[in-house]
Amino acid sequence: MTKWYLQKSLLCATLWLGLSGAAPARSLDDLERLSIEELANIKISSVLKTSEPLSDAPAAIYVIGHDEIMRSGLTRLPEILRLAPNLEVAQLTPTTYAISARGFNVGINASLSNKLLVMIDGRSVYTPLFGGVYWDMQQVLPENIERIEVISGPGATLWGANAVNGVINIITRKSSETEGGSLTVGAGNLERSASLQYGGRITDNLTYRVHAEGAYYGDFKTSDGKNAGDSWSRPQGGFRLDWTPPGEAVSVQGDIYQASEAPNGSIGGRDALASWQHQLDNGSLQFQAYYDQAKRHLDNGAGGFTIDTWDAEFQHSFKAGSRNDIVWGVGDRVVSYRIENTALALQPAGQTLNLSDIFGQDTIGLSDTVKLTLGLKLEDDPFTDWEPLPSARVSWKVTDDTLLWSAVSRAIRAPTPVDRDLIEKVGSQTILQGSRNFAPEMLIAYEAGTRIQASPRLSFSVSGFYNVYDDLRSIETAPGGFYPLRWSNKMTGLVYGAEVWGSFRAADWWRLSASFSLQHEHLRFEPGSSGIGGLTFAAEDPNHQAAIRSSMDLGEAVTWDADLRYVGKLHNTAVPEYAELNTSVGWAVTGSLELRLSGFNLLHDRHAEFFEAGQSDQIPRSFFVETRWRF
């Protein structure tokens, strides 16, 4: 009976959480002609929060470029993230993904993969209810993505709690780079979609774009071959304005969406973001504010939730003398949520929470080739006291083509309302509840790596990490009894490994890339822990994965891209290893009309990528034909 109640408890938790589950822009042609060396000098901003060449960034960072996205034929954000070699991406259903970096994808509920911070133009998109990301609620038109900066490793000093194992920063294109119209229509055996976008110039310094899109995704099949009945459809629209008078950059953008998810779910949301950047003689000032609303509900009145988030941040960058580059800032975030009629309850059912922070960072030039970056963020979490999030990074530019770097950082996964306020009952019996004593999950990370430009045609990156975790979440029995089970912090662990990727231009018309990652997780319960749920409750990851990608320009008008990936088995849930192939062929029929044929998961009729009770489908082979007309 005890085992039945526990399984019922975890299954209910799964079902409930599943419901609640600046560089100058370049044209596509310009990017196709860039050498490996030029690509390495594209400016990025996620590592030090200031613009710097990718080749000088002291972190394990991979940049998914606009050209790479467009040539892949991929249309959804989680699938696009498979292009980053330093991420783990596993699909469960048409709407559900488990995505993480350096471990801690979760086997009991993929929505609890909560140690990866994801942002769209600086707007955080993880839900503050449990710290994870609902990937069916995140979508950006591929045509509007400038680049995606993917950092494996902590970024808490700059970006705050939940930037534990990695940071994903999705940066969209300015409206000045998307002038004119674009009509895209696509259809395949699983997906049908269409989008319409138009942008223009109001004045010399003021540009705009507006867009609307809609998509339908068909049902998958369960492991026993039955129809899973989990199709969904999603309309979405948005706009962006950019004003760029001399020395200034002002941007205003927003989105609204509504989706219907079979058999009886619905999601919706809207957001608005405004940013301002002012150039100083000795640096810059930046201010950003956004509002975000997210809703998930069951259509049959069984409940759901609404979350409203307001956020404002200020940043000042400047030089102090000839050797110090300093950036500092403050921020404040207000989150209001309300839970209604769900299988699990939070007590209280709604709250308004406030999170504020202040940070500072100094990049010190110790010599012409050696830099030391020291940073500290102080974050005032609503459930804990001020948390210090320090880091130290050192980089050595051995030659113009070789960078060595190392870092040590502290990061936390902050407590959430689910950790503290959860109440689950079966009948009148409370089965599982949160703990007001739940502490932040803590990481001390040690990293080192190198980035080498061996020639204008060859570059590669190697990084290693050793992560020490403490106070990881566990499930414990009640003192002197069994029920109610409670969240606690009686798990610790070590995760260590290495990540390698590289690019080689075999010919002017042919580019190859390859990657390999290896990691080992050693988690354990502390003495006295009940061990309920097992280690799978905290992490379920492959020990290794690899990929090979080929990108060809077959004459002036035809491109052919292919991506072969291998993912090792998941040990605890016995999901086998697998290899799959994606490929996409594009034909520029005229200067304004493009056709693209893509195939995904071509090596098998269907395969498993992850396991979660009641939510794991077989991922099928699919095809997609897309037409894009620019006017």
Q: Any idea what the shape is?
A: globular
Low-confidence stretches: 1-33
CATH superfamily: TonB-dependent receptor, beta-barrel domain
CATH top level assignment: Mainly Beta
Percent helix, as a range, is: under 10%
Which band does the percent of strand residues land in?
over 45%
Could you say which structural class the secondary elements and strand pairing correspond to? mainly beta
| Measured distance between first and last alpha carbons | 66 Å
Number of helices: 7
Description:
There is one protein chain. With 631 residues, the chain is mainly beta. The protein has a single domain (2-348, 362-630), classed as Maltoporin, Chain A (Beta Barrel), CATH 2.40.170.20. The protein has 7 helices and 37 strands. It has a 22-stranded antiparallel beta barrel. Strand 14 and strand 15 form a beta hairpin. The longest helix has 18 residues, at 2-19. The radius of gyration is 24 Å and the shape is globular. The protein starts with a helix and ends with a strand.
Topology readout:
Layout: H1 2-19, H2 28-33, H3 36-40, E1 43-44, E2 52-53, E3 60-65, H4 66-72, H5 77-80, E4 88-91, E5 97-100, E6 116-120, E7 123-124, E8 145-152, H6 156-159, E9 166-172, E10 180-188, E11 191-201, E12 206-217, E13 221-222, E14 232-243, E15 248-261, E16 265-280, E17 283-298, E18 304-320, E19 324-340, E20 345-346, E21 350-365, E22 370-380, E23 386-399, E24 402-413, H7 417-421, E25 422-426, E26 429-433, E27 441-455, E28 458-476, E29 485-507, E30 510-525, E31 544-554, E32 558-567, E33 578-588, E34 593-600, E35 606-607, E36 617-620, E37 622-630
Parallel strand pairs: 6-9, 26-29
Antiparallel strand pairs: 1-2, 3-8, 4-5, 6-7, 8-9, 10-11, 10-37, 11-12, 12-14, 13-36, 14-15, 15-16, 16-17, 17-18, 18-19, 19-21, 20-25, 21-22, 22-23, 23-24, 24-27, 25-26, 27-28, 28-29, 29-30, 30-31, 31-32, 32-33, 33-34, 34-37, 35-36
